[in-house]
Amino acid sequence: MRTRGYSKRTFETYTYWIKHFILFCDKQHPDRLSETDVERYLTYLSVRRHVSPGTQDHVWEK
């Protein structure tokens, strides 16, 4: 991300969301995760954490 010119803050934010997703999925290996896991996580963010749809879009872009 740094070689692509992302700011330090963007890097930190994306790292936060990645870590949170890994913990949410009980540290399972990525090969064991599916679209259903992503959908569960996004639902959790929306319903339980009250994260806005716009923020969720940034979590999963690129």
| Annotation field: number of helices | 3
Distance between the termini: 11 Å
Structural class: mainly alpha
Using only C-alpha atoms, the radius of gyration works out to 12 Å
Q: Strand share of the residues? A: under 5%
Topology (elements, then pairings):
Elements lengths: L7 H17 L10 H13 L5 H8 L2
What does this entry look like structurally?
- With 62 residues, this protein is mostly helical.
- The protein has helices at 8-24, 35-47, 53-60.
- It is globular and about 30 Å long.
- 2% of the residues are buried.
What are the salient characteristics of this protein?
62 residues, mainly alpha, 3 helices, 61% helix
Quick synopsis:
With 62 residues, this protein is an all-alpha fold. 61% of the residues lie in helices and 0% in strands.
